[in-house]
Amino acid sequence: MKKPVLFVILLFAVSLMANAQKFALIDMEYILQHIPDYEQANEQLNQLSQKYQNEVEALTQQTQSLYKDYQSKAASLSEEQRMKKEE
């Protein structure tokens, strides 16, 4: 009676250890480099990113220009005109 029970327990333990050994290593960089659509999508993303970055830089320069213009004229403006510009 003890031998079959011991055998079942041992078999169960071995099967658990066998399942624990299953793992995989995936090289996503290799996979993505060999997918042509990935490279095309990545290029489109870079172009779109550059476009938006250029827009942000242009708006930043425009804002700085308007602020400098306001600061240079602020001394000559009346209080009401200054408040309107600040809104």
Automatic annotation (TrEMBL):
<protein>
    <submittedName>
        <fullName>Chaperone protein Skp</fullName>
    </submittedName>
</protein>
<dbReference type="GO" id="GO:0050821">
    <property type="term" value="P:protein stabilization"/>
</dbReference>
<keyword id="KW-0732">Signal</keyword>
<dbReference type="InterPro" id="IPR005632">
    <property type="entry name" value="Chaperone_Skp"/>
</dbReference>
<keyword id="KW-0175">Coiled coil</keyword>
<dbReference type="InterPro" id="IPR024930">
    <property type="entry name" value="Skp_dom_sf"/>
</dbReference>
<dbReference type="Pfam" id="PF03938">
    <property type="entry name" value="OmpH"/>
</dbReference>
<dbReference type="GO" id="GO:0051082">
    <property type="term" value="F:unfolded protein binding"/>
</dbReference>
<comment type="similarity">
    <text>Belongs to the Skp family.</text>
</comment>
<dbReference type="GO" id="GO:0005829">
    <property type="term" value="C:cytosol"/>
</dbReference>
<feature type="coiled-coil region">
    <location>
        <begin position="35"/>
        <end position="87"/>
    </location>
</feature>
